[in-house]
Amino acid sequence: MKQTYLKICLIIASLFLINTMQAQLVQKISVLANKPKSEIQSTMWGIFFEDINFAADGGIYAELVKNRSFEFYKPLMGWKETKQGEAKGKILILNRGEANQANQRFVRITADAEKDSYGLSNEGFRGMGLIMNKQYNFSVLARKFGDGNIRLKIELVGANDDKIGTATLEQFTDQWENYSVSLQCTATEPKAKLNVLLEGKGGLDIDIVSLFPQDTWKNRPYGLRADLVQMLFDLKPGFIRFPGGCIVEGQNLSNRYQWKKTIGSQQDRQLILNRWNNEFSDRSTPDYFQSFGLGFFEYFQLAEDIGAEPLPILNCGMACQYNSGELIAMDQLQPYIQDALDLIEFANGSSDSKWGKLRAEMGHPASFNLKLLGVGNEQWDEQYIERYKVFSSAIKAKYPYIKLITSAGPSPDGNQFDYLWGELRKLNADLVDEHYYKSPDWFLNGATRYDNYNRKGPKVFAGEYAAHSKKQNENPESQNNWESALAEAAFMTGLERNADIVYMASYAPLFAHVDAWQWRPDLIWFDNTRVVGTPNYYVQKLFSNHRGTHIIPILSEGNVITGKDSLYASATIDKSTNEIFIKVVNTSSKQIPFELNIEGVSVIKKSIICQILTGSNPMDYNSLDNPKKISPFEKSIDMSGNKLKASIEAHSVYVFTVPCKKL
Ligand code: AHR
Q1: pLDDT tens sequence across 201-220
Q2: Which atom of ligand 1 lies at the shortest distance from residue 437's CA?
Q3: Which atom of ligand 1 approaches the CA of 519 most closely?
Q4: Which fold does the domain 41-62+224-404 belong to in CATH?
Q5: Residue 96 near residue 262, CB atoms below 8 Å
């Protein structure tokens, strides 16, 4: 009896103790709304676009025909001779030679197909994604060859060879002319193909065979895939960096990115090999080229459409240092510098200027208002500094308002990193671009990375980052798991807290095709008809959609919240909308109760909105088949005056939006 009594006492005592301990674990958090620190740049959260993983051709550039102008290394790559019935014929590859350097090859189809048809079939980029009841615009540059009477039959073909759209073009002349026709598609097919077949007896020369959905982004002919651009638009990005990445550098200087070759008529843009074609032997992609259908004009237009500052990156006379490391000699650097000066004129110059006129002729008389420009990508060593100095003095002399992005190399620390920062600090560079592809733990520990950074001199551009988790399976999207996204969210509270020095940040890479990727993880995955935002995408979106104009302190028991007890937090105020945004990240497997007090301002609503992003398993990810497994949902939370009591669930990101009176 006595023993039982003792046991009961013990249980009661331990329950009391646990209760008291739990009470002690309630975090007391204060947000000091009336102590705004530095301003947050409008460029704080941006996007990094590189033509890697079929991001441009086969991705956002909505062209469905692969190798449309027969300029791939193998001229008929992506094409197949196709005979229907008794038809006979011949395919020849012809070269125009000097007549058109940018587009030398075309195909001659000769057919004997009085009853049936003969020609070519195009497989698209891992198939063509076609949607039922949608219109598709077919076009071709063609001329009749010899006598004879031929028609061109165009067929959209589904998986079982069923015809899901047909049209016919005829009355060809013996001069090159553009012919076009629109087709309605009768079924949804992610891996369709296109037949272009001659009927009758005779010959036809064809080139630039093209098929586009009619409903591209803003319905622009030869435009961009609307669903993919929508994903970017929804991020409300502060900037868009383009066209990369290592693609800017080229494996050697001859296949570096040259913006002047990407503007003007799309048909005259000379195709080159995409450097990611053969970069990784285990992810070789022999059919990866750059058609430049998405060129610098389209990039600027895209930036404008999604409300982002354009940030082009230019080659600085150095090829990729992981590849050839080829350098242009210092006394030959001038054309590279001229390219930079001309680019600024192309973007901003009046229609009277040489390059501004071209922009106006392409349909954009107004300036693109370029303010940022990158000199080189992931360059290092004194060769970079030497070249940067020449670029900088020429650009600043003519366009002092342009802010230049400079390189801190490929690693976020180490000798080269220290050397580059040291030199760039001496040169008073504008922004230094840091890259980090690291483990989730690195990101968790890195939430304080910028707390003690030297505030004098250049600002930071966290230009490429992503947490690389080891937890993945054969599904391409799987490496974008919740573990990685949560670690990035924790890290991003540190970026935000240090927005006085971190002016820009972007996850990398942006896009990847599930059937044609070279690099993962990536922010957004897609196939030919679908797109999925990763958990990492939703983290970016939460931060970018709740940016605020100024940082405000958020403290627990007077201390900055940087990961103690697995809790991370940052807070901002938007002085134009009078909203406070509080981001809280719990990376532990336990719920964290807290009491939050907003000081120095009156909260004007009794109930506020909290966006929650959470996952029960660190390995969870969003796939094309299950795209919303980890995606934000809203909860309304009651406030008591300026206070709220809540708990942040395990492995979660919470963003509170608190409307308040004007400060
Ligand atoms: O984002 C992929 C690559 O990573 C970029 O092209 C390069 O800058 C970095 O090494």
Answers
A1: 999 999 999 999 999 999 99
A2: 4
A3: 2
A4: TIM Barrel (3.20.20)
A5: no
DSSP code, position 269: P
Residue tagged active-site, from 189, 249, 298, 378: 378
Q: Are 248 and 256 in contact (CB under 8 A)?
A: yes
CA distances for 472 relative to 216, 223, 233, 437, 468, angstroms: 34, 34, 29, 16, 10
Ligand 1 centroid–CA 53 distance in Å is 12
pLDDT at 92: 98
pLDDT digits (tens, 9 = 90+) for 282-314: 999 999 999 999 999 999 999 999 999 999 999
Q: What is the pLDDT of residues 72-107, one digit of tens each?
A: 999 999 999 999 999 999 999 999 988 888 899 999
Answer whether 41-62+224-404 and 79-213 agree in fold.
Answer: no
Provide CATH code, domain 25-38+552-659: 2.60.40.1180
* Ligand 1 near 292 CB (within 6 A): no
Has residue 6 got a pLDDT over 80? no
Would the CB of 123 count as within 6 Å of ligand 1? no
What is the architecture, at CATH level 2, of domain 79-213? Sandwich (2.60)
The reply to whether ligand 1 has any atom less than 6 angstroms from the CB of 246 is yes
Spans of all domains in the chain: 25-38+552-659, 41-62+224-404, 79-213
- Residues 621 and 615: their CA atoms lie apart, in Å, by 9
378 is catalytic: yes
519 lines ligand 1 (CB under 6 A): yes
pLDDT in the model for residue 3: 59
Residue 380 is encoded by which pair of tokens? 């290092």
50 CB near ligand 1 (under 6 Å)? yes
Q: Is the CB of 250 under 6 A from ligand 1?
A: no
Measured from the Cα of 246, ligand 1's closest atom is: 6
Residues 6+ positions from 380 with CB-CB distance below 8 Å = 321, 407, 409, 410, 416, 419, 420
Q: Ligand 1: distance of its center to the CA of 246 in Å? A: 5
CB atoms within 10 A of CB 414: 11
Assign 267 a pLDDT band (cuts: 50, 70, 90).
Answer: confident
